[in-house]
What does this fold into?
Amino acid sequence: MSVTHELPVSRTRIGQRGKMVIPVAIQNTVHVGEGTEVVIRSLGEGTFIVETLDAVKRRLRAAAPVGDGDSAAEAREDAAEEEAAENDTARHGAP
It folds into this structure.
């Protein structure tokens, strides 16, 4: 069995004041760059995950229970509208 696509792996260090440089190959693979808002979650000693804020929102929305009432559907609609507005603002600048 051959691997047709390998994800890049890179080594970096935590610098002064806790700064960490994310190598360009990793940035390109996950489509992030300067100014991308991220969330860092600790998974225990020596392990953490860095996710974009958009990725966290998508993950949480996917995990949200689908309720029987209108409130769950309305909350999902509101969240989708908010995300669309944020994406539009990011593409075109502030209103």
In short: The two ends are 52 Å apart (CA to CA). The domain at 1-53 is CATH 2.10.260.10 (Pemi-like Protein 1; Chain: D).
